[in-house]
Amino acid sequence: MSEKIGKHHKGRILVVDDEESMCQLLEADLSLRGFEVSWRTRVDDVLNLLQEEDFDAVLTDLRMPGMRGDELCQRILTNRSDLPVIVMTAFGSMETAIAAIRAGAYDFVTKPIEMDALAIVLQRGVEHRQLQEKVKILRQAVQDANRFDEMIGASPSMRNLYGQLTRIAESDTSVLVCGESGTGKELVARSIHRHSTRCDGPLVAVNCAALPDTLLESELFGHTKGAFTGAQSSRKGLLVQAEKGTLLLDEIGEMPLAMQPKLLRALEENRVRPVGSDHEIPIDVRLLTATNRDLLSAVEEKRFREDLYYRINVIQIELPPLRARGTDVLLLANHFVNMLAAGSGREITGITEQAAERLLTYSWPGNVRELRNVIERAVALTRFDKIAVDDLPEKIRNYKSTQVFVGGSDPSELVPLEEIQRRYILHVIQSVNGNRTLAARVLGLDRKTLYRKLCHYGVLKEQGG
């Protein structure tokens, strides 16, 4: 019977007593009851062991040379608050036992020890610890469900995005990531690369808007020595540097028209010709592009090549603006508070309810990037343990939500239906940062109809007019 029980451990127990014979007695009895037991007679050995190994409970004597049991209890719980500590005390030392409980001990037993009662206390302590572990795992699971790599959010739009990214990463297709500035387009690109079959290859990124037209071609395709003034040596282009990996072209909408057919040819033929060279180099890269522009409108207005647009837009991801993500604002804000407070050594535990209301009301034109800057400023300025309204910038403290006004009950204030339509269309255009493709989708109009209405309102000029 004892052998059968011994094979199924009820938990790992660390026994601490300065009498070796007592430790051996407890080990023999508790092992037969199904516990896995280790013991130490020196307090210093105990603290070192707890840093190296994991136990489900500690059973310690109260009176030992060098350190009392209640002091040991405090030391253990300072580093391992999840670990139940049961203290053993001689009959008549109740004051000492109470001191240990106040120090954080889970329970106590009196000497001489009744082994059946001790086994019950230990089992209860082990189960308490295991329950804490389950709660911790569940909390972590909730946090994990609200994030994907570096992206955080529990809104339906973000959960949908996580599912998209999981499926997209497995393919090798070109992806166009669209979204306003600050929504996290580069984070999305990094996630796609990290979860792709090319994850062992490099992720090379370039911002097309950050380079002069004259340098962009040599940056992408490379150049030979002496190809132009200042080219003192040959240089590999980014398309070659990204071999077997991923190339991210950020702000692709800013790429000069003259460069676009050269990029298209390289993508179609999987070969590049460095500036000044007569030879082509084969390439094997996955292309990701990102933009905060309305590329379809740019195609219609002849500012972006249609053939390149369809080559890079095999799969399109639309990142939602922060104002459309509901309480994700608070999830992100608390994440930034914890991260930035830890980095600066500040003890800041969260955000007050009033400050949270202001954060939820604000429209966040700069999206997640703006939110991080606001929280960084608040963490640096606050004098309290929580971010308060006064720690926020004035534009957020005094922000009032804009609404489309359609008139009151006074007949003189009422406006024609066409005017209401005009105001609402312009409101939607403003809300989506001028993205006419997205605005048409929100309004339920086709793009040509929306284009005609905007021309009629004087927002746009007729093409060729």
* Mean pLDDT rating: 84
Strand order of the largest sheet: 2-1-3-4-5
The structure class reads alpha/beta
Count of separate structural domains? 4
Number of strands: 18
Q: Can you give the helix content as a percent range?
A: 40-55%
Strand percentage lies at 5-15%
The low-confidence runs, each spanning 5 or more residues with pLDDT under 50, are: 1-7
Overall CATH architecture of the largest domain: 3-Layer(aba) Sandwich
Q: What profile does the largest beta sheet have?
A: 5 strands, parallel
- CATH class (first level) name of the largest domain: Alpha Beta
The radius of gyration over CA amounts to 33 Å
State the CATH superfamily name of the largest domain: P-loop containing nucleotide triphosphate hydrolases
Task: Describe what you observe in this structure.
This protein is α/β, with parallel strands linked by helices. The protein has 4 domains: 141 residues, 3-Layer(aba) Sandwich (Rossmann fold); 167 residues, 3-Layer(aba) Sandwich (Rossmann fold); 74 residues, Helicase, Ruva Protein, domain 3; 46 residues, Homeodomain-like (Arc Repressor Mutant, subunit A, Orthogonal Bundle), CATH 1.10.10.60. It has 20 helices and 18 strands. The strands form 6 sheets. Strands 2-1-3-4-5 form a 5-stranded parallel β-sheet, sandwiched between helices. Strands 9-12-15-8-16 form a 5-stranded parallel β-sheet. Strands 6-7 form a two-stranded antiparallel sheet. Strand 1, helix 2 and strand 2 form a beta-alpha-beta unit. The longest helix is centred in the N-terminal third of the chain and has 31 residues. It is elongated, with a radius of gyration of 33 Å. The chain starts with a helix and ends in a 9-residue tail after the last helix. The N terminus is likely disordered.
